[in-house]
Design brief:
The complex is a heterodimer of chains A (167) and B (65). Chain A is mainly alpha-helical and 167 residues long. Helices cover 79% and strands 0% of the residues of chain A. Chain B is 91% helix and 0% strand. Classes of the chains: A mainly alpha (167), B mainly alpha (65).
């Protein structure tokens, strides 16, 4: 398991994915707060769902910080993969927080055994937007992987140049 | 429907506008920064590859000696 995550992170995707994920989570928190004010009467409450999503955002920020603090990507990969494994614990907590605790946030309304509780006039736009976000993430991630590949080539060429200058 | 939307926009206009601004700002920033980083990396890589190619070819060339 650790090897899989280690490879996934040391691989070209992981280095950049945290940036995307942090931006999406921040967007979720901001627009959620703006929706919460007229609906709930408060921008923010420390209920289980909101707090667990906020912890997810902090987790992404710490991943980004860890990548930036350690210069060598090979050295950085191990602590980042351990932190990612720790962060995985948060995912089921986010999903089931509204069922496990009595929260201001409404209970699960899309992914549930009895079928979606949302009216189809809202469910379909939600699913279409979900698919659009997935495609946007995929596109941006592919661009980021390409950039990472180029930056690693640049690093290699710099090293070759330095070796050539020494010789 | 339009009446409903106008009513909703009138009452909660500030929240809707702020949501759109944050949406466009964050997503736009993300997309722009991804493209800018890629173009920068491409430019630097091209320059380095060209320099590397010329340094290699000048080492191999008999004129260099």
């Amino acid at each position: 398991m650790e090897c899989a995550v280690y490879l996934c992170i040391y691989g070209y995707g992981g280095t950049r994915y945290a940036d995307l994920a942090a931006a999406f989570t921040l967007l979720c928190l901001i627009t959620g707060a703006l929706w919460g004010k007229p609906m709930w009467g408060a921008y923010w409450v420390w209920d289980a769902r909101l707090t667990s999503v906020f912890i997810l955002f902090l987790m992404y920020c710490s991943l980004i910080a860890l990548w930036r603090v350690i210069d060598n990507p090979i050295m950085a990969a191990r602590p980042v993969s351990i932190l990612t494994l720790l962060g995985l614990v948060n995912l089921p907590i986010i999903k089931f927080s509204v069922d496990w605790w009595n929260t201001l946030h409404q209970p699960a309304s899309v992914l549930r055994l009895q079928g979606p509780a949302i009216h189809s006039s809202q469910l379909w736009p939600l699913l279409v937007m979900g698919a659009a976000f997935l495609l946007l993430t995929l596109t941006l991630q592919l661009i980021n992987i390409r950039t990472e590949l180029m930056q690693r080539r640049i690093r290699t060429l710099h090293l070759l140049q330095a070796q050539g200058d020494k010789a | 429907m339009i009446d409903f939307l106008m009513g909703a926009l009138g009452k909660h206009a500030i929240y809707i506008v702020l949501s759109y601004v944050s949406f466009v700002g964050i997503l736009g920033g993300l997309i722009l920064s991804s493209f800018i980083k890629m173009r920068q990396a491409k430019r630097i890589l091209n320059a380095l590859q060209t320099a590397h190619y010329f340094s290699q070819s000048s080492e191999k060339s008999p004129n260099a000696e």
